[in-house]
Amino acid sequence: MTNSDLNTTLVVVGAGMAGFAAALQAAQDGNDVILLEKLAETGGSSAMSGGCLAFAGTDLQLANGVDDSNELLFKDLREVGKFENDESLVRAYVDNQLDTYEWMKRAGVQFGPHIETSSGQSVPRVHNVDPADAVRALAASAQRTGRVRLLADTRALRLIRDAQSGCVIGVTAERGGETFKVLGSRGVVLTSGGFVQNAGLVHRYAPQYNEETAVFIGGAGNMGDGLKMAQQLGADCRDMIYIKGTYGKHPADETNHHSLLAVYKGAIAVNQNGKRYVDESISYKLLGDACIQQPYSATFQIFDQPIFDSGDNQTRILDIERRHEEGLVIQADTLEELAGMIEVPADALIGTVDAYNRYVDAGHDPEFGREHLVHQHGKLVKIQNAPFYAYPSAAAVYGTYCGLCVDAAMRVLDVYGEPLAGLYAAGEVVGGLHGAAYMTGSALGKAAIFGRIAARTALAN
């Protein structure tokens, strides 16, 4: 060891929501933590997110007249993931979600009073936070314990194993040109995020997504560092083929990093030929896949005034009015005029809308089988009341939603399914929860939930 080497109880790598959740939980349980963050600022992709968390059975749902349960949350998560997700991880999420919601409130996280329904949800369970404020609240609570030492501008380079036992006991880190060791008597929790900013790594696993077909948005540090460090020790990965873009990102807007999902309020999606091409109620990850297969990898969400008015200004992905104020929503008095403005064949667009309205009246969509506004929730509505609107939409890869294999205790597993002793993971670096698609709020939700589980497991061993 050198004079600059550091010792603690638990080492956490990555200071986003998962990292602060792990650090705070460990500190509340009476343990010392060193939290490493390679950037100058904390928060990562968590702070850039839409601020949605998926919880069930909360006081907010009760206040809004929503009947939800662990069983329905479990069912929705499994179904939206097309049963490709790990049932044990889904169960871990569900069994710990309500306690984590209350824990976050006690830590100072402020949830908005209104909840909404979004991708993969059968009832409204989008609990909204200001994402940067939420991370700051967890960070402040962690700092108040006096047990968490944050090292910003500090990059973890490699995991360190004990020469005799093979147990992970720390990391080699670099700060200001100096390399040193950070050792944890109870091991290391990787909360280092995904790899959305590593174009080569994304293309390796999802060659259909590139700079021509999608936009890539995420924390600047999301290069896959933690993933590669664990892989070097033999860690297995899963769900890599399910990297997908989220539908609804305006292709020409470089300032707003969020998608708009007017489809979940009743809009339809049409391509450059003015034709529908998908069941608009499915997960927006699957909508992203469908979008990039269309001409120019960009389409339009088409809706009318009642759908516009049904938008929710408390939920970023449903805030139609805000996008209109930003000049991103195209408005016209007639569908024919709208078609001219977005340069699609007027007869095709009018025919598509007319056919869809007949499907709504008939209660059956013979083209794509759409039955609800979103997943199993909401009655379909016709598009018939002027003015009419179009929102240009592409796919944006906000996160990789795949990664290290872990068990329900957040122990990282090797390629034989055995735990790598002393190594734990949580947040976006973990695969297995989402499966083939994604429920709104489950990424930020799993960061907090799995971060707590990882810390508790590490400290119990």
TrEMBL record:
Residues 10-443 form the FAD-dependent oxidoreductase 2 FAD-binding domain. It comes from the Bacteria. Gene3D superfamilies: FAD/NAD(P)-binding domain, Succinate dehydrogenase/fumarate reductase flavoprotein, catalytic domain. InterPro entries: FAD-dep_OxRdtase_2_FAD-bd (IPR003953), FAD-oxidoreductase_2 (IPR050315), FAD/NAD-bd_sf (IPR036188), Flavocytochrome_c (IPR010960), Succ_DH/fumarate_Rdtase_cat_sf (IPR027477). Its cofactor is FAD. Pfam families: FAD_binding_2. Keywords: FAD, Flavoprotein, Oxidoreductase. NCBIfam families: flavo_cyto_c. Belongs to the FAD-dependent oxidoreductase 2 family. FRD/SDH subfamily. PANTHER family: 3-OXOSTEROID 1-DEHYDROGENASE, FUMARATE REDUCTASE. This is Flavocytochrome c. It comes from Achromobacter veterisilvae.
